[in-house]
């Protein structure tokens, strides 16, 4: 096996971290032969995890999606979404666990489910009603003031974003500088089916960063090191024996490089070979493949059975 | 009169442009003696206009507010809000008047009223419904696609902003680079009553500028020169004989300086004397006064009657 690139990957790495969108699926379509590649890695005794900046789903919700997409061997604890990593980080690395203060959430139910799972109280999210219709709307602004129960603002992707949520988050952060400010991720675009893009969490959060002239205290998604800390801590991994597989240079590959992981870029998502050619130094992935499905031919060879021993 | 600072103002300038918030009123409170100062300027034969970046109201709506606040001599055509200047600019300085294409509006009824007044067709604004509730929401995204009827996106302040509006504007601008992109203003904060601030148009628009990596083709409020062009064109003014009076260095004073106007900063709004002391060169106003109400004592002297002759 050590004579082939795939053999070298199997020899070098015990743990394989996969991005989701553009790597194992694209919208509601499975990447061809990606399921088989994952199954073969598991069969070869490798530890396989999934790492996504999408903050709209909890581990439980993702687990259902993995099963629906035919990734039947994936367990909830194998999935690291930015909603989970944000809740884990807030619970274990901030004073929120002991302060009794609440998290104000601009985001989806995936985030509030994960906060519930770690026992952190919260307000906001989809339950925050929008402004009344004009002309009453303008007068409603005066009802948005500080709330001393809030100790942190956590912002993620929010299909139901409205001015009340933005004004509340802004007011808490502006009124008391000690209110912490967290983001699940800072992707500027949100990828949808059929190569379509919409504004992402990073674009939505710029309403707060520009109005406040303040950046988040921590970003809990790729390429932030906090996301990797959460994975390493809860999974007890050796970075040097871990490979990050993704379709984006600025999140996935940068995430792996910053953390001292090996990196494999797949061309089944948003990055073309042209774009890779322009990348230099730290931005260049260690390995490139058309898709993880292409590993199957190599992994599926007869000599595969000797992979973990060679 | 020429021996006093106020006398020199009256000698030097025929036209006085006033910002509104923080200058003639603050929220729903009239600045003390500001009405009297305006009345005395008009009595002295001066041309008096009002210039505001607030895009939520049309000229007609502002006229009602001026009357309600006791500024009874102000006519609709004396009021230049950024909703009016945006509609005027789009009608007279872009191909929209002849292309038959529509303006997609993220903003309030003030903007759509002004577009109606100049005969430009539009879509969007408050009529754009928000996303359905989860879990249907995510699937709704696929209904947001390009619309070939749209020739420009115009964004202003919007209390009823939602993801559908943002995603539509983003999609039009991303899909066709020839779709023009306009902003009524780029103020990062929106001043409300009692010294409170909320996120402003400039903060809301950063969702689009960051996701698209594209700045607006034109900003139609202060300190953009387009706003001044609209005033000068429709009012036939001489910039050298015009004084801009405002409470902000970065919008009002910069607006006046860029346009070759005289500038008077009043301290009745957001700018303190400390902040003025830190300003250098182009950022420094020509004149400073505690408020326009303080002009009354000087303007009200007996020699006032000789002001226009002296």
From TrEMBL, chains A, B:
Q: Which reaction does it catalyse?
A: 4-nitrophenyl phosphate + H2O = 4-nitrophenol + phosphate + H(+)
Q: Name one GO molecular function term.
A: metal ion binding
Q: Binding of substrate: at which residues? A: 222
Q: What is its EC number?
A: 3.1.3.41
Family annotation (InterPro entries): HAD-like_sf (IPR036412), HAD-SF_hydro_IIA (IPR006357), HAD_sf (IPR023214), PGP_euk (IPR006349)
Question: Which Pfam families does the entry link to?
Answer: Hydrolase_6, Hydrolase_like
Residue numbers binding Mg(2+):
19, 21, 247
Q: Which GO terms describe its cellular component?
A: cytoplasm
Cofactor(s) listed in the protein's UniProt record: Mg(2+)
Instruction: Tell me if Cell membrane is a UniProt keyword of this record.
Output: no
Q: What class of enzyme is it?
A: hydrolase
Active-site residues (renumbered): 19, 21
NCBIfam families cross-referenced by the UniProt entry: HAD-SF-IIA, PGP_euk
Q: What is this protein called?
A: 4-nitrophenylphosphatase
């Amino acid at each position: 096996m050590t004579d082939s690139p795939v053999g070298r990957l199997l020899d070098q790495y015990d743990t394989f971290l996969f991005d989701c969108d553009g790597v194992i699926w694209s919208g509601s379509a499975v990447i061809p032969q990606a399921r088989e590649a994952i199954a073969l890695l598991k069969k070869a005794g490798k530890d396989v995890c999934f790492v996504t900046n999408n903050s709209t789903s909890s581990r439980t919700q993702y687990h259902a999606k993995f099963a629906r997409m035919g990734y039947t061997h994936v367990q909830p604890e194998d999935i690291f979404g930015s909603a989970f990593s944000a809740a884990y980080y807030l619970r274990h690395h901030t004073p929120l666990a002991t302060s009794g203060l609440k998290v104000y959430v601009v985001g989806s139910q995936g985030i509030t489910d994960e906060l519930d799972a770690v026992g952190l109280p919260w307000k906001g999210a989809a339950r925050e009603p929008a402004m009344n219709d004009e002309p009453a709307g303008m007068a409603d602004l005066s009802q948005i003031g500080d709330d001393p129960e809030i100790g942190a603002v956590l912002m993620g992707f929010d299909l139901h974003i409205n001015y009340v949520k933005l004004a509340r988050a802004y007011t808490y952060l502006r009124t008391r500088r000690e209110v912490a400010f967290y983001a699940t991720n800072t992707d500027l675009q949100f990828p949808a089916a059929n190569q379509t893009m919409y504004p992402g969490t990073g674009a939505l959060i710029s309403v707060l960063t520009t109005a406040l002239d303040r950046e988040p205290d921590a970003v809990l998604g790729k390429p932030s090191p906090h996301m990797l800390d959460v994975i390493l801590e809860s999974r007890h991994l050796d970075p040097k024996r871990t490979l990050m597989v993704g379709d984006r240079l600025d999140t996935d590959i940068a995430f792996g490089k910053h953390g001292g992981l090996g990196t494999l870029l797949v061309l089944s998502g948003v990055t073309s070979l042209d774009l890779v050619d322009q990348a230099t130094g730290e931005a260049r992935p260690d390995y490139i493949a058309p898709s993880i499905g292409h590993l199957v031919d190599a992994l599926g060879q007869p000599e595969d059975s000797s992979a973990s021993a060679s």
